[in-house]
């Protein structure tokens, strides 16, 4: 979420956040009002699900103004509930309404595919799904027998059901290439492998349970179908432990964000947790581990991807620039790896200085007036310079300053992929 005011002294005020306090008791009339707001917002012709998910709408609609009429009707009707109507509306909005939002949120997640509704959601709206690694496969690659079977099954997801070998599969897909993506569902602690390819400029493929040819979801025209993997209890957004299922705690919940993720502190990690790793010797496949700092296998939930799509203007020739604040939450305690995706449209990028600031205030210059083009596009840009002993959870600030007059532009989107560890 971006700050349009130069006096945004309290960055947290730039974040829409109703996920806090105790859940309390939630009347059906209130959850119905939240859901009605969600449906109204999603029916708006300007609604773009690529930028705003239903989960975002639930948070937006868990708002005192949105449900005030429902509360008035409830408390002025016959037999008003004493526990709700015996308090002031301000008390209700503070102590009970956030829990109502979680009732709606949990119901939504209970029936939602953990991968999202499109293949692109793995990057745009990653939720509880963590990308452990990617490969571009071609016919020249040496594949295991299982991988060959998976490639053939994935190609059957399009119209090429007559394909029986991996060689035939690579011959029919666009460019002779298939994307292999290793995934970890941190909400249910389950591993998967996705195979995606182009077919006539459309996206097709399959997501398999790791180590099998058992389908978890089918990719068709970029959308996900037949998904049989729903959200688990972990990794759900929380304001405190009361918002999580029994036995889970609300972890990685900084005050500046007011949000963490539900985590099972008693979960048994893979035996390779804490062992050494590198690019040449990665963490074991299917283990739910990430190579943190390029040296140690850590639980995959310690990696997160955080996306913002502000489409906000950069002030021309203004030393204050424009800041976009990205709330980071649910990770361990300190960062080990920070990667940035960034898309800026600007008629003269050579005027721009781009800086990323971590929650502790440490600044790293990302881009400094380099010439070329009318866009600035970074993907998986490795950022060095953030100390390994500073808090990872909190508000990260991307600041863009235009240093010369006469050219304008916008910050279209950015994403931080951050791996962390316990200090």
Characterize the structure shown.
Strand 3 and strand 4 form a beta hairpin. This protein is of the alpha+beta class. Helix 1 packs across helix 6. The strands form 5 sheets. It has a 6-stranded antiparallel β-sheet with strand order 2-3-4-5-6-7, with helices on one face. The chain folds into 4 domains: 109 residues, no CATH class; 105 residues, no CATH class; 61 residues, no CATH class; 117 residues, Jelly Rolls (Sandwich), CATH 2.60.120.260. Helices cover 20% and strands 33% of the residues. The two termini are 29 Å apart.
What is the topological layout?
Elements: E1 2-3, H1 28-43, H2 54-61, H3 64-76, H4 82-85, H5 89-95, H6 97-110, H7 121-124, E2 129-137, H8 145-155, H9 166-172, E3 178-185, E4 190-199, E5 202-209, E6 215-220, E7 223-225, E8 237-238, E9 249-251, E10 260-263, E11 289-292, E12 296-299, E13 303-308, E14 312-314, E15 318-328, E16 334-346, E17 352-357, E18 363-368, E19 375-382, E20 394-402, E21 409-421
Q: Which architecture of the largest domain does the CATH hierarchy give at level 2?
A: Sandwich
As a percent range, the share of strand residues is 25-35%
Strand neighbour order, sheet with most strands: 2-3-4-5-6-7
Q: What is the radius of gyration computed over CA atoms, rounded to a whole number of angstroms?
A: 23 Å
Q: What is the end-to-end distance? A: 29 Å
Number of domain modules: 4
Biggest beta sheet attributes = 6 strands, antiparallel
CATH class of the largest domain: Mainly Beta
Helix content: 10-25%
- Helix count, per DSSP? 9
Judged by helices, strands and strand pairing, the structural class is alpha+beta
Helix and strand element order:
EHHHHHHHEHHEEEEEEEEEEEEEEEEEEE
Shape: globular
The unreliable regions are: 1-24
| CATH domain fold name of the largest domain | Jelly Rolls
CATH superfamily of the largest domain: Galactose-binding domain-like
* Mean pLDDT over the residues: 93
Strand runs, count: 21
The multimeric state of the shown protein is: single chain
């Amino acid at each position: 979420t971006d700050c349009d005011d130069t006096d945004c002294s309290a960055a947290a005020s730039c974040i829409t956040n109703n996920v806090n306090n105790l859940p309390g008791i939630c009347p059906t009339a209130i959850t119905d009002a939240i859901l009605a707001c969600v449906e109204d917002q999603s029916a708006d012709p300007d609604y773009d699900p690529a930028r705003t998910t239903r989960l975002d709408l639930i948070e937006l609609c868990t708002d005192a103004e949105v449900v005030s009429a429902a509360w008035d009707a409830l408390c002025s009707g016959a037999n008003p509930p004493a526990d709700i109507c015996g308090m002031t509306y301000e008390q209700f909005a503070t102590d009970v309404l956030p829990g109502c939002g979680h009732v709606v949120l949990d119901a939504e997640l209970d029936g939602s595919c953990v991968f999202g509704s499109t293949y692109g959601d793995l990057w745009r709206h990653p939720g509880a799904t963590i990308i452990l690694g990617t490969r571009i496969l071609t016919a020249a690659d040496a594949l295991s027998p299982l991988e060959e079977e998976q490639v053939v099954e994935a190609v059957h997801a399009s119209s090429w059901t007559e394909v029986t070998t991996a060689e035939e599969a690579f011959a029919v897909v666009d460019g002779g290439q298939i994307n292999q993506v290793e995934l970890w569902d941190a909400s249910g602690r389950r591993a998967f492998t996705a195979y995606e390819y182009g077919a006539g400029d459309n996206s097709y493929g399959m997501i398999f349970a790791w180590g099998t040819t058992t389908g978890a979801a089918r990719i068709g025209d970029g959308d996900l179908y037949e998904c049989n993997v729903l959200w688990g209890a972990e990794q759900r957004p929380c304001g405190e432990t009361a918002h999580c299922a029994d036995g889970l705690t609300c972890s990685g919940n900084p005050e500046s964000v007011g949000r963490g993720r539900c985590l099972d502190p008693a979960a048994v990690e893979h035996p390779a947790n804490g062992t050494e790793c590198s690019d040449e010797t990665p963490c074991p496949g299917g283990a739910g581990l990430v190579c943190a700092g390029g040296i140690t296998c850590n639980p995959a939930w310690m990696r997160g991807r955080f996306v913002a799509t502000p489409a906000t203007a950069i002030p021309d020739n203004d030393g204050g620039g424009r800041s976009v604040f990205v709330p980071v939450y649910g990770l361990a305690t300190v960062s080990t790896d920070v990667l940035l995706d960034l898309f800026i449209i600007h008629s003269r990028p050579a005027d721009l200085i781009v800086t990323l600031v971590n929650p502790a205030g440490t600044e790293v210059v990302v881009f400094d007036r380099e010439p070329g083009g009318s866009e600035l596009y970074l993907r998986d840009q490795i950022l060095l310079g953030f100390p390994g002993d500073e808090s990872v959870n909190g508000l990260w600030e991307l600041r863009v300053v235009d240093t010369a007059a006469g050219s304008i532009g916008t910050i279209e989107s950015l994403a931080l992929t951050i791996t962390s560890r316990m200090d």
